[in-house]
Amino acid sequence: xxxxxxxxxxxxxxxxxxxxxxxxxxxxxxxxxxxxxxxxxxxxxxxxxxxxxxxxxxxxxxxxxxxxxxxxxxxxxxxxxxxxxxxxxxxxxxxxxxxxxxxxxxxxxxxxxxxxxxxxxxxx
Amino acid sequence: xxxxxxxxxxxxxxxxxxxxxxxxxxxxxxxxxxxxxxxxxxxxxxxxxxxxxxxxxxxxxxxxxxxxxxxxxxxxxxxxxxxxxxxxxxxxxxxxxxxxxxxxxxxxxxxxxxxxxxxxxxxxxxxxxxxxxxxxxxxxxxxxxxxxxxxxxxxxxxxxxxxxxxxxxxxxxxxxxxxxxxxxxxxxxxxxxxxxxxxxxxxxxxxxxxxxxxxxxxxxxxxxxxxxxxxxxxxxxxxxxxxxxxxxxxxxxxxxxxxxxxxxxxxxxxxxxxxxxxxxxxxxxxxxxxxxxxxxxxxxxxxxxxxxxxxxxxxxxxxxxxxxxxxxxxxxxxxxxxxxxxxxxxxxxxxxxxxxxxxxxxxxxxxxxxxxxxxxxxxxxxx
Lengths: 124, 383
Known about the structure:
The structure holds two protein chains of two kinds.
Chain A: E1 5-9, H1 13-25, E2 29-33, H2 36-45, E3 50-54, H3 62-71, E4 80-84, H4 89-98, E5 102-105, H5 110-123
Parallel strand pairs in A: 1-2, 1-3, 3-4, 4-5
Helix pairs in contact in A: 2-3
Chain B: H1 2-7, H2 10-18, H3 25-80, H4 87-98, H5 105-121, H6 125-136, H7 139-147, H8 152-164, H9 168-174, H10 183-196, H11 204-207, H12 214-226, H13 244-256, H14 263-268, H15 275-287, H16 294-300, H17 306-319, H18 325-331, H19 337-349, H20 352-364, H21 367-377, H22 379-382
Helix pairs in contact in B: 3-4, 3-5, 4-6, 5-6, 7-8, 8-10, 9-10, 10-12, 13-15, 15-17, 17-19, 18-19, 19-20, 19-21, 20-21
């Protein structure tokens, strides 16, 4: 079976690595970016089956990246999961309005995160 | 002085004997000034340079150790996310971390920082696993040592670490700082106690005699939102506190955690001497949608201050029971702009029945009050 390609855009190195390890353990192919600019460049250059986005990022924040993805006709169908330390109602609503498929608030449970990723990939 | 003279190089001695001593006093003073400034500047440059070199070397070392620590931690955590970890697993992870030079303060601090980061960002089994690794490595002793430091920021850091890891034995030590004159230390002590004390996490409110700033309250709320295991007391217990900021905070907590049983105690606060407290009670009535208290609010209206009056109007707009339509309609005739504006806004929030009332008011209100009613009925606004 073909491995799913996932992009993780998260500026905290430890967080980024932990998510990467978990996804690799679940059998996915993982690419990472530590800031918004690199993330957008990777999205434009490659095709991913799923994108995991943090909200607070250097250069471009998660919501701005999400808007860019949804404006790109070739990338708009890629499911996006937003991870954020803020569970603020406005941010969550803004994320869903822009087209996010799921929203995870920190702190979160890793196995639950794996299941959410799996579910979105299956729906795709 | 003579000894110092002997140490000087020959050209300086020559300059001193043949020129300097012959100069007038003012020139001598100028020379000394120039020399002193030169040497002090050079010393400062050297100090800055040395500090930068040392810091760069520390950062380089820290980066190396950080990568190694991250490697051990990520591998360990992922290994145990899908299965229950046992004491053997903890020992295994601890042994791996013990291979690092834990005697070095830098390494110890880096491990603490990484553990705290993971503890904040992951919940469930990982969260308890991290706390156990922290205590197995006896890192709490390192954090407790910081509490004895004379520097306030070291104390605050120690409290933050112990609080985040939920070290209950240290919670009592935090209480001495809940009234500190230093705002940050005070805030850290309050939030640290809330996180660390498992038996009575809100006891610090009994001791707080300083103002519980809004920023502190947001911080405490954030901790409560992140830690679902914190034992919640009945917050009305502090409605009689001598510290008004504690009373306000507890009213907010009552609303946040929907402690409806505290309504009777809330009612008593309508007669509180502090306007801010009364305003908070009125807001709470609206947030909790206490329809039964709506009439109580309108009765109190006349005796209230302008700030509280406006809050009462807003609250009737939040409850929207329809019982206050006449009360609000009368206020649209008020001479005070804010009062009639909020009253019209509250009517608008009542939906169809409110709008109908606003249309009727258009025919009766004086010309100068019409603009407010028309503004509320403007369809462009609701769109």
